[in-house]
Amino acid sequence: MTDTTAIVNNDVATETVSALANNSAGADIGTSLLSSQFLIGSVGAPFLIGLAVGYFAKKTFKIALFIGGAALVALFAAEYYGVASISDEHLKNAASAAGGAVQHSSNVLMDRLSNISSKGLSAVAGFAAGLKFG
């Protein structure tokens, strides 16, 4: 950092502190942080995006579990009637692979949602709410 940059930064900090002390800019700072434009753009919209993604993820997961369960029942029925032979190890490996795929997908979604807003908290909170209510 050069000397002029330090002087400029120090002047800006001094002006900000004096403005807050005099309360001349304090009202502007407070209202700008609580304005509807700021809240909708920084908190509301990311929350709704996270809510929609969480809701969709839970519904998709339920459908995948339903289809996977139906396939397992069909395989067990085929084994019972002697049409197919199922190894327990292969079943465990398939379940582990499916669990790994779900974990990877959820990590990708959480990483993406955390980048939507500045802190990522509202989008992740919306995702959790979507999972809860979905």
What can you tell me about this protein's structure?
The chain is mostly helical and 134 residues long. It has helices at 3-22, 26-33, 36-80, 88-114, 121-133. Helix 3 packs across helix 5. The longest helix is centred in the middle third of the chain and has 45 residues, at 36-80. It starts with a helix and ends with a helix.
Quick structural summary:
This protein has 134 residues and is mainly α. The protein has 5 helices and no strands.
Distance between the termini: 51 Å
Oligomer: single chain
Task: Tell me, briefly, the overall form.
Answer: elongated
Number-wise, the strands total: 0
Order of helices and strands: HHHHH
Radius of gyration, in angstroms, nearest whole number: 26 Å
Number of helices: 5
Mean pLDDT across the residues is 74
What share of the residues does DSSP label as strand, in percent? under 5%
Backbone structural class: mainly alpha
Q: Indicate the low-confidence ranges by residue numbers.
A: 1-30
Largest sheet: none
Fraction in helix = over 70%
What is the topological layout?
Layout (H helix, E strand, L loop, with lengths): L2 H20 L3 H8 L2 H45 L7 H27 L6 H13 L1
Helix pairs in contact: 3-5
